[in-house]
């Protein structure tokens, strides 16, 4: 089965946040109330109960004046996900159409996936001591439906379908934008990290939207994957045994030093 992906066109988004509401509704996620900080963006980041947000980046340009750059932000469903590489319990898997899924039954809440993700997407849900994130509406897709966010997007900023076909559409759209006032227009997600299963049509450079221009997996991930994770089963009890030994020896030395100290004052 071909990779099915979600394409978001920043040039068409009106920041209505219908996608954000649809995601909450379909996944039956509770409200995540945040303090008002004087601007329109409701959440600074995704969290354990908010899988998708609309970023509202305000810039003052010397030529264009004040400009708003909107961005729908959620899991990128990387083709080669770092979260899957570091999870010590194998809680992550890929569907046949390319979504990266998290299994809460296997999750131990260690948050290694959060630290490994170049976009810091997997978020800790404290009440369950588990991680939670966007599923690309895998349950809907399996039934032949579009993700909830796509089905509710009024201005047509979201599309869902075959990744290669959407890339072809994105190339034509970017060509049009470059010829009509957006010379910096580009596609994000085609090559980044070897390819993302979430594509963007950007009117400006990625950093204007809060996206890393060259996202990278943290350098310690290969070390974790190659040297630590394969031996995790016996490293944990070994570490515990080492801690116990250290505790005992520290007590013994403390007692000896105490005896010697008392004897010196007799």
Give me some keywords for this one.
four-stranded mixed beta sheet, alpha+beta, disordered C terminus, 10 strands, Alpha-Beta Plaits, globular
The radius of gyration is 24 Å
User: Which architecture of the largest domain would the CATH scheme give at its second level?
Assistant: 2-Layer Sandwich
Strand order of the largest sheet: 8-1-10-9
Our measurement of the CA-to-CA distance between the termini, rounded to an integer number of angstroms, reads: 84 Å
| CATH topology heading of the largest domain | Alpha-Beta Plaits
N-to-C SSE series?
EHEEHEEHEEHHEHEEHH
Q: What percentage of the residues does DSSP assign to strands (E)?
A: 15-25%
CATH class of the largest domain: Alpha Beta
Counted by DSSP, the helix tally is 8
Number of domains: 2
Q: What gross morphology would you assign?
A: globular
Proportion in helices? 25-40%
How many β-strand runs?
Answer: 10
The average pLDDT value, as a whole number, equals 87
For the largest beta-sheet, the strand count, sense and barrel status come to: 4 strands, mixed
Please, what is the oligomeric state?
A: single chain
Coarse structural class: alpha+beta
As residue ranges, the low-confidence spans are 260-266
């Amino acid at each position: 089965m071909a990779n099915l992906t979600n394409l978001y066109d920043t040039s068409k988004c009106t920041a209505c946040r219908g996608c954000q509401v649809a995601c909450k509704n379909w996944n039956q996620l509770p409200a995540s109330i945040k303090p008002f900080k004087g601007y329109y963006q409701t959440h600074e980041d995704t969290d354990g109960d908010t899988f998708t947000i609309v970023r509202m980046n305000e810039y003052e340009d010397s030529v264009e004046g004040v400009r708003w750059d909107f961005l729908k932000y959620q899991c990128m469903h990387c083709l080669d996900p770092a979260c899957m590489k570091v999870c010590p319990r194998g809680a992550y898997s890929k569907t046949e159409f390319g979504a990266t899924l998290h299994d809460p039954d296997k999750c131990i809440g260690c948050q290694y996936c959060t630290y490994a993700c170049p976009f810091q997407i997997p978020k800790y849900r404290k009440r369950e001591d588990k991680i939670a994130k966007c599923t690309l509406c895998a349950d809907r897709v399996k039934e032949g439906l579009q993700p909830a966010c796509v089905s509710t997007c009024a201005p047509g900023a979201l599309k869902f379908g075959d990744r290669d076909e959407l890339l072809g559409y994105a190339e034509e759209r970017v060509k049009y934008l470059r010829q009509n006032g957006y010379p910096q227009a580009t596609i994000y997600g085609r090559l980044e990290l070897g390819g993302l299963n979430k594509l963007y049509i950007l009117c400006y450079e990625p950093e204007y939207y809060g996206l890393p221009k060259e996202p990278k997996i943290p350098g310690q991930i290969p070390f974790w994957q190659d040297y630590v994770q394969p031996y995790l089963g016996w490293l944990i009890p070994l570490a515990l045994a080492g801690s116990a030994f250290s505790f005992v020896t520290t007590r013994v030395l403390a007692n000896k030093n105490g005896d010697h100290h008392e004897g010196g004052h007799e």
